[in-house]
Amino acid sequence: PVLSGGRSITGWKAGRVNGVDCWVASLPEVKEGKWNFHQLWVDGKRRERPFLPGKGFLRMESVPDKKEGSGFQEGQQTFICHEGDIRRWKNLRDVEIHTFNFWIDERQWIKRFNPVTRLVELDRKSKFHLLDEWKKEGAQYRVENVFEELRKPGQWYLDRKQGRLYYIPRKGEKLGKAEVIAPCLPELLRIEGRDPDKKAARGITCEGLTFRHNEWVPKKDWSSSAQAAHEVPGTINL
């Protein structure tokens, strides 16, 4: 038995995107703003969104709102990118900056970009400052969910404005035959007593169950946890 927090996506049609063959599915609920997701599974395997660079990392040129002498736990909401690293892509506000600084990784979305000054304004503050460890140079990062970079087999892109899901199939995957699932639930199982101190849930055994296809979506002011992702809830909560 499989407990799934996802929804099967059907009605795929053959199409073209960025010069390559793809599958396209129309999702009215996405266009209406009722559904959004950041994960996708095809035949039980997680697939990736398009990202830059293809290998390694980009690096922030500077962090202008970093105050001199402030601690590493003071976050920022802007940085200056190197020439050509970030551009005015389609659906720019859906482009995600995935930063790797200190012992954590952070996720922020682009709010605005000035191609003249190369200033990137993010939608939320980072948890730690956007420098590389204790050095003065900018942190390393990836740019994820870029529509124009959707070219490689196994990559997908959700166009929220148009309500369309694009997927570039891998070798052997057949249109109309592959199982494609996107998440719509954050939690799959909760077991709790009426009073955790006096009437806690006890004596319950779960055996042989598989839990799949859920996704936790962070709050609008959350970019990362300072330690051990302790704010992130579980698929299963006891």
Task: Tell me what you see in this structure.
This protein has 238 residues and is mainly β. Helix content is 2%, strand content 31%. It contains 1 helix and 19 strands. The strands form 5 sheets. Strands 7, 8, 9, 10, 11, 12 and 13 form a 7-stranded antiparallel beta sheet that branches. The two termini are 20 Å apart.
Q: Main sheet? A: 7 strands, antiparallel
Q: DSSP strand (E) fraction?
A: 25-35%
Radius of gyration: 20 Å
Order of helices and strands: EEEEHEEEEEEEEEEEEEEE
Structural class by SSE content = mainly beta
| Helix percentage | under 10%
The stretches of 5 or more residues where confidence is low (pLDDT under 50) are none
Q: For the residues shown, what is the average pLDDT?
A: 92
Shape: flat
How far apart lie the N and C ends? 20 Å
User: In total, how many beta strands?
Assistant: 19
| Count of runs of 4 or more consecutive helical residues | 1
Quick gist of this model?
With 238 residues, the chain is mainly β. It has one helix at 28-31; strands at residues 2-4, 6-8, 13-17, 20-26, 41-42, 45-46, 51-52, 58-59, 78-80, 96-101, 104-114, 119-122, 140-144, 156-159, 164-167, 180-183, 189-190, 210-212, 236-237.
Keywords:
238 residues; mainly beta; 7-stranded antiparallel β-sheet; 4-stranded antiparallel β-sheet; 31% strand
